[in-house]
Amino acid sequence: MGKIIEINHLTWQYTDTEKPALVDVNLDIEDNMFIGVCGPNESGKTTLVSCIKGLIPHNFIGSYTGEVRLFGKNIRDLRAKELAEYVGFVFADPEAQFTSMSVEEELAFGMENIGLGSDEIRERIDWVAKITNLENLLDKSPYDLSGGQKQRVAIASVLAMQPKIVILDEPTSMLDPMGKDSVFNICARMKEELNMTIIMVEHTMDRLARLSDRLILVHNGKIERYAEPEHFFENVDELVEMGLNPPASIVFLDQLKRAGLYEGPMTTSVEETIEIAQSICARKESVQ
Ligand SMILES: Nc1ncnc2c1ncn2[C@@H]1O[C@H](COP(=O)(O)OP(=O)(O)OP(=O)(O)O)[C@@H](O)[C@H]1O
To answer: How much distance in Å is there from the Cα of 231 to the middle of ligand 1?
Structure first.
């Protein structure tokens, strides 16, 4: 698997602000990964993903040093059309993305903009509507849908463009638990079945940690940690100090470690955590 995103010594400061929002960021992301991005408020998460989408520096004013490369090409040299083919972006507020009066038109919009033919557009609409379970809503106004349905429309319109990378910035923050589940499930399928690279900024750590191949911790504009979940959660105290809310299974295993009852690796899987707890109980019973 090759690197598809490379960030080298990236520092970015929005104009008229006192300090850089990102400071000397270095990051490599490989193909077909699910990357979870977490960190406290105002730490630089949205800024980081905006740099990967090329919104920074193309659409913002500020000072930019270092470089971001997508598929080996400097993002500064990529045109809007190429960027749209490489990277799709889903916002927290799906309505911010809507431009049409029906779901079907909404899904077609981006494809019409890049000049796809009507047969290709029809085929892709049917394909994304199936994946995101929107088949019965195509003639509805996107504004009349539930929060979860709206977010599925936003994701479907990004999927229809078939980008290699999909970035989602707090996509579930406005959704109820069912809406959250459906967004997480669709994103998992996008990675597994469509081989996309998913980068998700998210505060719901439990679900994010379970799906992610790697987690990034952004703190004060820097990448403080970039690791597989098992290693990411090794020092729980430090994460809590930095404003994170680790998943319940991690907090539980950390307590077992402190009590001298467990020495193995951390896991975010509920099933594995139960097995660990059961084996500790069995050990204790056999000693008594
Ligand atoms: N358009 C902008 N103009 C000026 N400063 C900005 C702009 N957007 C973000 N910032 C500043 O950059 C820093 C990082 O903000 P950013 O939105 O990237 O953080 P975040 O981790 O995504 O926050 P949150 O979790 O609250 O959404 C903050 O200090 C913020 O005030």
So the answer is: 27
